[in-house]
Amino acid sequence: MIISVLNIKGGVGKTTVATNLAVGIAKTGKSVLLIDTDTQGSAVSWRGEREDSDANVTVISLCSASALRKQIIGFRDGFDCIIIDGSPHVDALAAVSIAASELVILPVGPSPLDIWATSKMVYQIEDAQAINPEIKASFVINKFSKVTLLSKETKAVLQEFSIPVCENTLGTRVAYADTMTQGLTALEWHDRKAKEEVTAFINEILGLISWQQLSA
Ligand SMILES: Nc1ncnc2c1ncn2[C@@H]1O[C@H](COP(=O)(O)OP(=O)(O)OP(=O)(O)O)[C@@H](O)[C@H]1O
Ligand SMILES: [Mg+2]
Predict the structure, then answer these.
(1) Cβ of 193: how many Cβ atoms within 10 Å?
(2) Which of 176, 185, 189 gets mutated to test ligand 1 (max ligand atoms within 8 A of its CB)?
(3) Which atom of ligand 1 is nearest to the CA of 143?
(4) Residues within 5 A (CB) of ion ligand 2
(5) Average pLDDT over residues 197-210
(6) Whose CA is nearest to atom 9 of ligand 1?
(7) I want to staple 4 with a disulfide (CB 3.0 to 4.6 A). Which of 18, 58, 101, 117 is the partner?
(8) Helix count (H) and strand count (E) of the chain?
(9) What is the CATH number of the domain that holds 199?
(10) Can you tell me the mean pLDDT for 127-143?
(11) pLDDT attached to residue 11
């Protein structure tokens, strides 16, 4: 199973979603390889802060489209699940990631700038789906706030695209930023609401691929 977390817009939560998903899937007993395709190396740095003893989440850096194309199939044989943490910069990498994926997750923030930038990626996914209709995709609204009108409107605007929107959203919470710098995830943190919402989101994703759910 290959899952990409992509968006050419920077800072929308790709690495946050990818790391939480990696740990969540590992908690269901699967081996997970997280491929950091961003030269900023955020996921690699996150793993560097994490306990060495955690053998279930391996993180590697692979920042070129040709390297990813050559190696991805070999990696698939070695792990139950591969999660690709996308780069905000390079289109060729995104194209290889989409083509290799069974599922593409598009985190998007509740802002018009995020949604406009996302539309380019949607067209890229639609092109890939025209060749391989098996590729699934889903938006997830990150940095959602119940109090802003914009957050409420984001879902309606995203529904105009062909790609479905996850029921579950991730709120703006310090837990996501605090855990990232410590090599942890909201699943391993004391903020109950963050843990509940990220568990619900991960279970929605696991449902999309018909995999065993993560217990609360
Ligand atoms: N739901 C959230 N609540 C609060 N902070 C968040 C949330 N999601 C992400 N952040 C913070 O926003 C910043 C950007 O998030 P992240 O690194 O996951 O985005 P990205 O899309 O991977 O960025 P880049 O394009 O630079 O790779 C980080 O500091 C992260 O901790
Ligand atoms: Mg990132």
Answers:
(1) 11
(2) 176
(3) 1
(4) 14-15, 42
(5) 97
(6) 13
(7) 101
(8) 8, 6
(9) 3.40.50.300
(10) 97
(11) 94
Residue 214 lies in a domain: no
Residues with CB under 6 A from ligand 1: 10-16, 38, 40, 42, 88, 142-143, 170, 172-173, 176-177, 180
Q: Hey, what long-range contacts does 114-120 have (CB within 8 A, 24 or more apart)? A: 114/7, 114/9, 114/12, 115/154, 115/157, 115/158, 117/7, 117/8, 117/9, 118/7, 118/8, 118/9, 118/161, 119/161, 120/8
Domain count, the chain: 1
The pLDDT score that the predictor gives to residue 153 is 84
C-alpha of residue 58 to centroid of ligand 2, in Å? 16
Whether the predicted pLDDT of 114 surpasses 90:
no
pLDDT in tens, 162-171: 999 999 999 9
Ligand 1: centre distance to CA 4 (Å): 16
Domain that holds residue 194: 2-208
Mean pLDDT across the stretch 188-209?
97
